[in-house]
Write a structure and sequence with these properties.
The chain is an alpha/beta fold and 245 residues long. The protein has nine helices and seven strands; from the N terminus they run βαβαβαβααβαβαβαα. It has one domain: Rossmann fold (3-Layer(aba) Sandwich). Strands 3-2-1-4-5-6-7 form a seven-stranded parallel beta sheet, with helices on both faces. The chain is globular.
Amino acid sequence: MNIWIAGASTGIGAALATRYAQMGHTVFASARSEDKLQALAQQAKEFDGSIISLPCDVTVNESVISAVTQIQSHGPIDLAILNAGYYDPIELDELTVEHFLTTYDVNLQGVVRCLLAVLSGMKERQQGQIAIVSSVSGYTGLPRAAAYGSSKAALINLAESLQPECKAVGVDIRLINPGFVKSPLTDKNSFEMPFIIEADDAALRIVKGLSSTSFETHFPKRFTLWLKLLRFLPYRLYLTLAAKL
């Protein structure tokens, strides 16, 4: 199976690339950090599958199209995991237009660029799976995450909107909503992160979820189910709770 992972240099993406290569698949690992991708590819020489370093900047459409074209020269893309992400916790007084634009360009528009680049080929073959990696921060508005959370909420809406139409043409859209996962992004947080898990654990849960029939994979459930319940609270109560976070 040919797998493309966008955002594969660290964290969940790197762990997924390693996991799938160990399972015998060919993984095309993309990110802007070529040195980290090369290290991943070198490590995979011990596995049954392989990791091919494929640098790509998801904020540049030409870079995305070039990466997809290179992969397709090896064969069709069976699974695309769109995992590229940007996160910077910002206080109210520090919010700027530039912060929102940078966050959306990677987290939302970057995913859209990748999705559209692989979708046409999958539609023609009436086969393929696309996994959109969002976050539980997209469930509800949380303090210090105005840009990040809203970009992830948009991804949830995007996946939900596309799933019925894509299913009709044989393309399987999936949604992945992790809680806190140990990575360079979560290392920026100065607060206690409940139920944080290692990237390897997250990768194992995602692989299992994508092999199931479930539209959404979310974890760890002792945390994510609680956040799902928060969405049903009246705003007066929810906003009071959110202010204490």
